[in-house]
TrEMBL record:
Membrane topology according to the record: Multi-pass membrane protein
UniProt family annotation: Belongs to the ABC-4 integral membrane protein family.
Keywords of this entry: Cell membrane, Membrane, Transmembrane, Transmembrane helix
Protein name: ABC transporter permease
UniProt organism field: Sutcliffiella horikoshii
Keyword DNA damage appears in the UniProt entry: no
Subcellular location: Cell membrane
Transmembrane portions of the chain: 21-41, 263-284, 320-345, 351-373
Domain MacB-like periplasmic core: 20-226
Domain ABC3 transporter permease C-terminal span(s) in chain numbering: 271-383
Endpoints of the signal sequence: none
Transmembrane found in the keyword field: yes
């Protein structure tokens, strides 16, 4: 009997192709909107999260310009930050500018960054060639340098820079490595920078101001605790002048992005659901017309012994079929729109199974909800009255 009801429901839908298509159009638009909007927003937020993560989701960044009485942080301050529980490493940065000389060529105002070995061990995919700094370079204040790709192109085009000598601030440095091209969206590009041990940069102007420190965590779950402990250390370092420093926690930023994504998803789903409700009303209208047109058929089937629940089942199935057809077409349309949009915008395409289940499940629910009343009306028709209506 179920197979017969399915066949009859499908036959009735196919027999009125244009009317069926116009009826499911609202469902198609609603499901396509949900799939496309949620997928586009998710792709965009995933791209933002990836960018933030690439900046270091496992670290807390301290900017410490200091106060008029104390500029930047000292070695002792950095050592106390490194001693905080669950800290896996600390990387200070000292920045200065100077001229760079190589075989008579001079580059003015080159940015010099003092780093330590922790920075290289925590930064994946940083090195293009050569080697990174090690602990001996830091402790020995070795005159070694790593150069960015712009400087490599300017001075060593077609040559291997490893082992070459350059002059920085009047001192000779040996190039031990080259950096990969940076696409860091924060603007912290090192393409035209020279990296040397932070212990060696102290002879440059401003070299005593340690104004930037990255604290690497054993686990991101310790971010709040480490941030509080770092604030305690910094308050003591700057005599409780909170304007002497700022702390940026990437984990909090990622959490905020997730919250924004959830709110946008909920809001867009609510807006797109309006189309589904409109589509459901269209289905209800078509089913009511169908019941009226097929009153004789219903009366005849009841006169031959068909049970009311079977009549109700047939019409309800027809309503669900209409919704599901609209849901599948809307799903394919939504995926296509989202894919094209992700290519145009330049974000990743990320279709989750939960989004598909939500959209198709919602459309099937619309079919049941708005098809119930017409199906119930059909099942309650009196067979004698139905046959008289012919």
């Amino acid at each position: 009997m179920l197979r017969e009801n399915i066949y009859m429901a499908w036959r009735n839908i196919v027999s009125s192709k244009m009317r069926s298509f116009l009826t499911v159009l609202g469902i198609v638009i609603g499901v396509a909107s949900i799939i496309a909007l949620i997928t586009i927003v998710k792709g965009a937020t995933n791209s933002i999260s990836d960018q933030v993560t690439s900046l270091g989701a496992d670290k807390v960044t301290i900017q410490a310009p200091g106060t008029p009485l104390k500029r930047g942080l000292t070695e002792r301050d950095v050592s106390r930050l490194a001693d905080i529980e669950h800290v896996d490493g600390v990387s200070p940065t000292i920045t200065s500018t100077t001229s760079l000389v190589y075989e008579g060529k001079v580059l003015e105002d080159v940015t010099i960054q003092g780093k330590n070995e922790v920075y290289f061990s925590k930064s994946d995919d940083l090195l293009e060639s050569g080697r990174e700094m090690n602990r001996l370079d830091i402790e020995g204040k070795n005159k070694v340098a790593l150069i960015g790709p712009s400087i490599e192109d300017d001075l060593f085009f077609g040559k291997n820079p490893i082992g070459q000598k350059i002059t920085l601030g009047g001192s000779s440095y040996t190039i031990i490595g080259t950096l990969k091209e940076s696409t860091n969206y924060s603007g912290d590009s090192q393409n035209d920078h020279v990296l040397i041990p932070y212990t060696a940069v102290r002879s440059f102007p401003g070299g005593n101001n340690m104004t930037n420190v990255d604290i690497y965590m054993e686990n991101t779950s310790y971010s709040d605790q480490i941030t509080e402990d770092a604030e305690w250390v910094l308050n003591q370092a700057f005599n409780y002048k909170e304007d002497g420093y700022s702390i940026m926690n990437m984990t909090d930023m990622l959490s905020t992005i997730d919250d924004i994504n959830s709110m946008l998803t909920l809001m867009l789903t609510g807006i797109a659901s309006i189309s589904l409700i409109v589509g459901g009303i269209g289905i209800m209208n078509m089913m009511l017309v169908s019941v009226t047109e097929r009153t004789t058929e219903i009366g005849l089937r009841k006169a031959l012994g068909a049970e009311p629940k079977k009549i109700q089942q047939q019409f309800l199935m027809e309503s669900v079929f209409l919704s599901l057809i609209g849901g599948v077409i809307g799903l394919l349309a939504g995926i296509f729109i989202a894919y094209v949009a992700s290519l145009v915008i330049g974000t990743g395409f990320s279709l989750s199974i939960s989004t598909v289940i939500l959209a198709v499940g919602f459309s099937a629910g619309i079919g049941v909800l708005f098809g119930y009343a017409p199906a119930k009306k059909a099942s309650h028709l009196n067979p004698i009255d139905a046959l008289r209506s012919t």
